[in-house]
Amino acid sequence: MKTQNTSIKPAEMTNEELEQAAGGNFLPNTYKKSAYHSVGISTNYHIIEDDEFRFMGKSITYKQANRIVEIAKSVEQTLNDGYRDNNKISRSEPAFIRAFNSQLKNEFDMTWDGSAGCDFEGNPFLISPVIA
For 53, what's the count of Cα atoms within 13 Å in the CB-facing half-sphere? Predict the structure, then answer.
């Protein structure tokens, strides 16, 4: 008869480790929270359910959130091509916001007001349709 060692305690994850486990399917999101937040996308990460993303108060899909970050990176790279350090245009400057909005308007028919996104908790009474 074999005996089983029951004295092994399960390991607990720290809050930092839990934040890195980006919910829904146990795979990490494409970008860090800071990348989503820097272009106005608010996030609500879950362990089991799909993560939630909102842009300018409207629910968006994971793919849309990633595409918005990709657009921001492309605009930032184009505006700053050839510039270094303090000469670079940041995401909070009007020149970036104008260029970014021109691309957003073209692809999503939306514009960004320049405010950063944040973490939010889901509200079961708030119904916001996903932008198609």
Answer: 27
